[in-house]
Amino acid sequence: MLGVAAVIVVAGCSPSPSDGSVEVQAAGDQASPVASPASSPAVTTPAPESTPKSGRVRIAFGGDVHFEGSSAGALDGDLGTAFGQLKSADLAIVNLETAITDRGTPGPKQYTFRAPAKALDVLKNSGVDVVTLANNHGMDYGQVGLLDTLAAGKSTGLPIIGAGKNLRAAFTPFTRTVKGVRIAVFGATDVLDSFAIGTWPATATRPGLASSKDQYEELLLDAVREAAADSDVVVVDLHWGTEQQACPSDRQQELAHALTEAGAQVVVGSHAHVLEPHVREGNTTIHYGLGNFVFYAHSAPGTDTGVYNVVVDKDGVVRTTWLPGRISGGRPQLLSGSAAKAASAQEDALASECGIG
Fold first, then answer.
1. Residue ranges of the Capsule synthesis protein CapA domain (predicted)?
2. Which of 15, 24, 153, 329 makes the best surface tag, with the fewest CB within 10 Å?
């Protein structure tokens, strides 16, 4: 398995928070305040009610984040009202679709993204607990940019998954125990430019990203199986799909099925820059595309966004809630009233329109 057999790492324990939960987390990480989601029109898929064997944990997911163009204004610390949901969640995760560096050489591609280290401080202060760098922009400025990004994450205390100084590090999940629920979170990319397929994925001796393409798929599945043996809930955040396509591809559906078979209860993703459907089956959930989040989108459907709340306990997913939003000035703002109801209905209908679920 190319050395991934030992990827499951549990970090040191921190003092118990005031609600009585015990957390195990990456060095330098801090828990988000625990609070109930704000009341807002939303699409909710309840699971059959039962007495949980542990506390219930709310995980909040946002889509693609960079700080280019109009979204650069978010560096002032105002990331939009959607971040209220992330800050109040027990655990909040977004896809960091940019290098954090002022060095390096841009890759041979049309769009390259980078942002200052301040971006990580802004995300952390706004409630983000972990970011995945596993995407087709994570190494836009080469290995120099990647190493700068990893160093900035360590300095800021914002854990970065889906990338590392070698294969083992790239496939190591973020782990945390909240309210007695042991959670492991992976990041991986199924999308790479042709020039990057042979050079961006990490190897035993090369820094890079966690990939799910080709031979790397089995490495990811093995890592998920190992995490499932030691965790109650396994989350996989993927970069996948086809840009501007709202319906998930056959590849997305096949990979999602393989991951849930391996033991993942929550599979979410991004890359299409439009919203894709979410589906529930038993104690698992899949959101195929969270869309843009902090992004320079200027018109629909690219400005359609939202927060995906997933409540879990030791048995897996208890319920899911989609809170719709719209990007304005590069920042995600939650919708309310009739606009929220219409956007929720549109998102809820996607699964049947795409013939899945």
1. 58-297
2. 15
Q: How many CB atoms sit inside 10 A of residue 300's CB? A: 10
Residues 343, 335: contact at Cβ < 8 Å?
yes
Give the bridge partners for 188, in sequence order.
Answer: 238
Q: How far apart are CA 118 and CA 108, in angstroms?
A: 26
Q: Looking at the predicted structure, is the pLDDT value of residue 14 above 50?
A: no
Contact 40, 297 (CB under 8 A): no
> Over the stretch 33-51, which tens digit does the pLDDT of each residue have?
333 333 334 444 444 444 4
State the Cα angle at 246 between 243 and 247, rounded to 5°.
110
Spell out where 260-353 has E strands: 266-270, 278-281, 284-287, 292-294, 304-313, 316-328, 331-334
CA distances from 21 to 5, 33, 44 (A): 29, 12, 26
β-sheet bridge partners, residue 45: 320
Give pLDDT tens digits for 189-225. Answer: 999 999 999 999 999 999 999 999 999 999 999 999 9
Instruction: Read off the pTM.
Output: 0.85
Residue type, 66: H
Instruction: Please choose, from the candidates 212, 198, 176, the residue with its C-alpha nearest in 3D space to the C-alpha of residue 57.
Output: 176
Q: Quick one: which H or E segment has residue 150?
A: helix 142-156
Residue with tokens 């030791």: 314
Residue range 121-155, pLDDT digits in tens: 999 999 999 999 999 999 999 999 999 999 999 99
Average per-residue pLDDT for the chain: 88
Contact 96, 65 (CB under 8 A): yes
- What is the dihedral sign for C-alpha 14, 29, 39, 62? negative
Q: Answer yes or no: are the C-beta atoms of 181 and 54 closer than 8 Å.
A: yes
83-102 residue pLDDT tens: 999 999 999 999 999 999 99
Task: Give the DSSP per-residue string, 197-262.
Answer: TTTSB--SSS-EE-B-STTHHHHHHHHHHHHHHH-SEEEEEEE-S-TT--SPPHHHHHHHHHHHHH
pLDDT at 9: 32
Contact predicate 272/241, CB 8 Å: yes
